[in-house]
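Write out this protein's structure.
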Amino acid sequence: MKRKKTGLLTACLLIGLSACASPKYNAGSYVYIDITNPSEKSRADVPITLRMDSIVPLLRHYTNQRIGIFDGSRILPTQFDDMNRDGKADEIAFLIDLKGHETKRLMARIVPPSEKIKNYEKEVYADLRHRKKLEDGREETRPDTAISSDKDDMYNKVWLHGILFESGPIAYRAYFNDKQTIDIYGKYENRLELPITQWHTTAKQLAEGYGDDVLLVGNSVGVGTFKGWDGTKALHTTKYGRRTQRLVATGDLRNTVEIELKDWEMQEHRFDARIRFTQYARHRDVKVEVFLSPTSDGLTFCSGVQTFPEEYRVTPAEDNLVGCWGKGFPQKDTVKYSHKETVGLGLAVPSSYSKGRCDDPLNRLILMSPKENKIEYWFTACSIKEKKGYTSATEWFSYLNEWKEEVLHPVRISYRIK
């Protein structure tokens, strides 16, 4: 009986594989994509990025038609992004679930004009705007995709002091000044709020259950800010030729924004740096990619999490993870903002970039050096006010350990036509 069942199962599998290997679509109009989870644990909403130049050369019939990503017969929600701003999409982004050690086979296929593609819910938001005061006292804002300056004069000339990016669980902003600090906006509900509250939540909106600013960053790194290092402390970016904040890609599923520095001067080096932040729908974490010119060789950089005045607890010292849980006032004005906020912060760095742990008076840091003119790391944050979030340091640190393993051991992706 066991042999008969096994034989029947094998036959069914062979039939299934044969069907998969011989689809109803014309050869040259599709590519298989195998995505493998290296972990024994299941992963939900795994961010996947595919390069168009890994797919298009395998499509013999491709002449700039639409491409869809399919899981069986189901088309996946996708976002096509032009990352190098040449007018052509060069990346495809989407999210999938994977069981432990699962390899999931997807199909990238040319989609004919007659085949409808559904519009999907927008799950991320990003904003960058000029700010101008009018003679009558009102303010006028104008959206843009990139804003630049050759001096530290943009903090009050940019709406909300810097670029914003938001997913359902949390929102961040990067200040447009020499600190370049990453600040956080915490929520009760998992939803997009910045189009409504614009970060500065009114008393009426607070009463209606909207979130607000939950972190006073001061001169710290906040969470995940990329800084220079002088051997004793993290450095603000004070000498540079030109600084730009830029929206690179915004859509339904991910935000990609950048801070670019031309002629950054630090410790007798002059170099360029492009700091890219990528945030996916349903995710509280952000991937950071730093692209440096070769003249930065020999320098040490850092990032990390800030310290807190109250209930401050930290993760064990590791070379690739720092985390904390703490409480403090979210604003300097403690009369108007009389309540204190509790948040969790975390940062993970691949060992290939890490130069070890170090603290300065304001921060818990990981020191980093570039490899092939690049540095990568991830940061994450939470607010205790989340209705379905983390309520203690113990819960937060447990999440950080699992999260670190996931981001530092990404899925494997391969392409094939048979």
